[in-house]
Every structure is written in structure tokens, then in C-alpha cells.
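tool_log.txt
---
The assistant was asked to compare two proteins side by side. It first ran the structure predictor on the initial sequence, then on the second. Raw inputs and outputs are pasted verbatim so the downstream comparison step can read them without reformatting.
(1)
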Amino acid sequence: MTEPKKNLSGDYTKGSGSTTQRVVCDADHDTQPFDEELDDEAGVDELVPLEFSVSAEYGGMRLDQALARLLPEYSRSRLQDWIAQGLVTLNGAAASTRQKVWGGETVAVLPQAHPAEQPYQAEDIALDIVYEDDSILVINKPVGLVVHPGSGNWQGTLLNALLHHAPQLAEVPRAGIVHRLDKDTSGLLVVARTLTAQTALVRQLQARSVRREYLALAHGEVARNGMVDAPIGRHPGQRTKMAVVKNGKPAVTHYRIEERFPGCTLLRCKLETGRTHQIRVHMALIGHPLVGDSTYLKGPQKCPPQLRAILAAFPRQALHAERLGLEHPVTGAWVEWQAPLPQDMQQLLEQVRSAAHEPA
């Protein structure tokens, strides 16, 4: 193929409207220092197709292979996506990934920015704000709300809601988010409203001085209070899961028994660190996976017959971030908040308590 008629190094994004905010984010789920810079470039208003003339040098190659050779700045999977979306034509007709080129054809590519490269939009999503001042917000996150845009969830997240609630957060990396909760975990999160506050909060998280306590209903009858100190990293075979791995990041979870039931235990878990899925992974490690946790449950769990259906029917991990304490980034005073259990976990515990008194 010959050289393209357009330079591919530009930012191929559509012009943004008034509700679009460009914020600095990355995909790491763990707390990290914020040293990225905001990109204020608006992008171009129109997407310009790139045209190529296929030379004999690429004869016999699949179309996606040939494009990958010529456009190394784009991944093969992204090029394949463009072909599947009809954004690549061969001699003016729709092309397929495995279609071969022989030389002399004209290929046109209409580049599209990946959602992760697009500026995030403010969205009018209701927030349960527990506390707010000029420096921080404390949010009681409901079940089902994703904290940060990512694969499969580029809209409808807490970040989008924050940009609507406080548009100035577009000037703060990650819109002020300094730690996260899983989509199906409820409870308290602190968000920084200024870069100064964000820096202070990140330092507290790194120093392990932020108090984060969760209530969790775990399978099995936990014998005593304890601690799990085991490093966590990506599962070596299933990249969407986390696991205890030798080269993982340090992770420490303290747990205390709050209430005992036949076949399950209500625990209070206190985090020293904040790794992705930390409580879920650590509790599964010691043989007490969380009720409803389809990711880390392995087969049926032992429990009395009268509780089996109740526990099996709970549709998410039974985990709630109940308490949050930290040093206020401006005043230096220690402040704490508490969020009651959401209705679904309250009902679950009521059902468990009731069933526990029934004869087996």
C-alpha cells in the first residue's frame, strides 16, 4: 500500500457540546498519585476518511493484517472493530476482516475515537450526598452505579453524575474520584472538589490512614475475628477476576464478627489497603465467600435447608461500605460518616434472622 493521504496522528473526535467535559482518568482500579495533565483540545468537527491504494507488496494478506502493518498506532482489535462497523470499505464496498487484498484496490478508513478517548459527558443522575463543602463530597453510592467509565460502561456512571452536579470537577483529575466501589457494592465514597483536596486524600489513602469499614454477609460460620494479609493481583487465567498472587500488591483486611447465623456470618471488614475486589477475594480465600458473589463463589455452600433458598436468591455480593473516616483536607479535623444498610441487605438479614429460628 502507498502512504495514506491523511496524517493519522491527530485526535479523531467529534466536536463536543456544552454538557461534555474532558477529564483526566486512567483504568487502574487502585488509588494512585494524580500527575496527569488535562487535555483541553476540542478535536475536529468532522471525521475525515483515509484512503489507501493497495500495492502488490500486500497481495494475499487479510485486510485487517494489511491495515495493521500500515497503521501500527492502532491495535489490530480496533481495526477489526472498524471493519465490523462498516467504517472500512474496499473499492467502495463494505469489507470483511478476513477478506484478502491483492493489489490495486482502494481502501478507505473512517477512524473513530475509542470511548476511553472521548471527553466524558455530564449526566443528570441523582446522587445521595451525605456531606458536601467546598473541598469534598461524600456520596452514598447505590447498588448498580458504576463509579468510573470503563469497558461496557462509558455512560451513566458516578463520574458523569459528578460532572453534572459540580461542573468544575472537569478541572480535577478523574473528576475528583480517589477510590472506588464495585458496581454492585453500596456505600460511602469521598470525592475531592479541588486538586489540593485530592492530593491530600490520595496521600491519606497511601498512608493507610483513611478509615473504611464494610458490612458483609459471608457464607459459613466464621469461628473468630481475624486478619487476612495476602497480596492481590489479576487472576492469571481470568483477567476480569482478581486473585491472591505472589507478585500482587500488598492487601490487608481485618474482619470482626457482628452477628452469627446458622450457615452464614455478618462481618465487619476494615481495610488497610484498597485493592480491587479486596474483601471479596480475601473472604473467599479463607473459605467464607460473600453471599451473592457469583464471581468468587465456587459451587454450593453448606447451610441449613431453611436458609439455602434465601442465600441463593440474593442477586449481588452482600457488601456495603458502611463507615468512612478521614482527616479533612482543609481543616485537618477528623471527620466520619455512616450509611445505613440498603434496603436489599436489610431485608436479607431479616429473612435470615427469621429463618434461623425455624426448625431445620
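(2)
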Amino acid sequence: MATRTSWTAVAVLLAAGVAGAGAIGKLPGALPPLRAEFGLSLVAAGWVVSMFNAVALASAVFFGLFADRAGALRACFFGLAALAAGGALGAVAASPAALLVSRFIEGAGFIALVVSVPGLIAAVTASRDRNLAFGLWSGYMPVGFAVTLVASPFVIATVGWRGLWWGQAATIGAVAFAIWRLRDRLPVTAPHAERTAAAIVEALRHPAPWWCAIAMGFYALQWIALMVWLPTFLLNERGASPLAAVALTALAVGVNSPGTMLGTWLVHRNLARGTLISVAAALMGACAIAIFAPALPDGWRYAACLGLSFFGGITPPAVLTSSQAYARSPAQIGKPARPDHPVVERGPVRRTAGGRADGLGDGRLVRLALCHARRRARRGRRRAARKPHRTAPARPARGGMTRRSEIAAQAEQELVRAQLPGRGGRDPASSEIVDLVGAGGFL
């Protein structure tokens, strides 16, 4: 883990996510010319739209394993290459079938990108900055979607929809080159190469991650479906001009980004993630009812679109930072999680080594437990010195040290050893240290 955050690398990795999201944002504005050129019905156009998401849904676990085995950087380059190749193939597509194949390739590249970039962000950020970096990462979709959507009518009017496809592929290539220039700062080896099928099955047995996945799935289902089809609805049902339809949709997409920033701030303020997800889901549901209420005027229905996008933005930061709270071991912490925050269970309270249960920062709970263990050891020695006739002498352990002081010393040595540069394989909050500290604090 980095001791100092490389914000240059973080910015380039965020740009990769934004460029990848452009593969989704380029489609809504291009649906009318695509339907006109290929004679697509609304159902066929729906297949072009949904192919991208279907590939992501079906292959997310596979590409997660691929990133674990091959390494996040290689998976990132694979995703960027597939996005560029799919965009180039779509730009020269002469039939609906070729267009569908290109969207399939783009979908595979996109999911490979988004499961690998968070691991790279974790590698170039210090512990104190990681929540902020992941909060910024959670906004890659609305930013990339909105920027591409705003640019699409002007690009299409100038060079056609094929020019838009070529431009997006070129942007992906430029981002890949920027990441290649920064490759020395990024890890190449796989961080979880030892993960087995048994570990995956064990992780999937617990209900909490499933609830988070369901919450994220319903959020994405509502948000992407609404934003992709809103321009078509405005054009066909309300007679809006192409520019007006794109502008109104871009505004609806753009307000999602302040929502993600609000969610990041609330998570940083240690509000319960379950509460944030539940409240955001309830507000999105209320807005969805208003959107499809024919009795409401169009102005109120569009305001409900803005509300759905804004309140929905609270969900990604809450979900993407939740894996640290539900992993039973460091190997089960997913890429969006904080690798230096394995979970430790002591008694009825569940908390992370970074102190998420009581709001303490990274590693502070470890230091607090060390101080607690040493304080109890000193108290025991003083009590034994004051009342030697009533208290049995402490059993010496290695050089006359009591058991508690020995545990505290071991934990302190492990903490110092883990913080030494170049040792590799241990974080300051590794599970071994937590076991030692927990034993010292609860003996």
C-alpha cells in the first residue's frame, strides 16, 4: 500500500472510468440515426442497448477472477483494448448483427475495466485518502455518460454516428497510453492470486453482500434504463428537438454526480451504509412513481427524473465501500474495498481493523488496542506489587515478561515490521496483528 497518494495516477484512472462510461453515453443520442440506417425497431434497438449491460451482468464474476489471477493492471489494459476494438468494429459495422457483436465486445471490455481500476486506485492511495478516492470513482458513470451525451449531437451532426464511435475509441486509446506511461507506479502482480473456489463460495454464503448487490442492481436498472431511453421518449412522444432532448437528458444524468458526492460525504461522516442505501432506494421509488404518473404535468415528471438521478447517486458510494464491513477475511475483500481494513469479530460487536464501528481512522483502533493492552499489563504489575500476599505472581514468559506485556510487545513489533517499506505482504492492519491485539485487549 502507498504511503503517499499519487493523485496524478488517481486522475488518470478516473479518466479511464469516464472514458469507459462514454461507451454507454454515446448510444442514446445515436439511436435515431442507428434506427434510420439499419431499420431497427424499438425492440431491436433495445437489444443494442441491453447487450452491453447483459454482458456485464453475465461476466462480472469471471472478469473479477481474471483480474485476481492476471493482475489489475493487465485486466485494465485488456478492458481498454476491448473497448477500443469494440468501438472500432461498431464504427465499420454494416449490419445490425455486426453492431451487436461490437456492443458485446465493448461490454466485456467495460466490465474488465471497472473491476480492475478500483484495485489500482487502492494501490496508489494512502489509507487516509482511500475513501475519498473511491468516492470520486463512484461518480465515473454520470460524468462519462453526461459528457458523451452532450457531445454526441454536435459530433453526429458533423461526422455522423460512425465518427462518434471512432472518437470514443480514440479517447480510450489515449487513456490507455496515459496509464501505460504511469505503469511504474501501478502494481502488476495479482493481489489475491491465492483465491480459490471454496473462498468464493464461502463469501457468497453470507446474505449482506447479496443485499448490497441487489440494491446496486435495482439502482442501475432504474437509472440506466431511464437515462438511455429518455431522449427517445422526448423525441417521439413530446416532439422535442434532438438538441433539447439531449440537453434535458444530460442535465438529468449530470445531477447524479452531486448525488454521489453527497453519498461520499455521508459515508465519510460515518453514517450507516444500510440507512443510506434504504433511504436512497425509497426516494428513488417515490420519484419513479411520479415519473410514470400521467396525471402530473411534464414539468413535475421531469423534476422527478432529476430527483431519481440525484438521490440514486447516494447508493454507489455506500455500496462500493461496504465490502470492508462484510468480508470475513482479507482475501474476501473485493477490489472496491479497502484492502487494509480486514474485518475482525470479537464478541457481539463486528468491526473493521480500521475502526469503522466506532468511527476511528485507519489503524487508530490498532494503536488504541495496543495502548489498552499495555495499560492493563502495567495495572496488573502494580496490583501484584501492592498486594503480593493476595495475588498470585504472574507467570513469567520469555525474560520475565507477563503474558499481557508479551502480547503487547509482539503486536507492537508486528506493527513496526508491517510499516517498514519493501517488506511486502503485510498491512498495518493485517489480520495477524488484529488477532494479537484482540487477544491482548480481551484476555
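---
observation on (2): The longest strand covers residues 343-346. Residues 330-366, 396-400, 415-443 have pLDDT under 50 and may be disordered.
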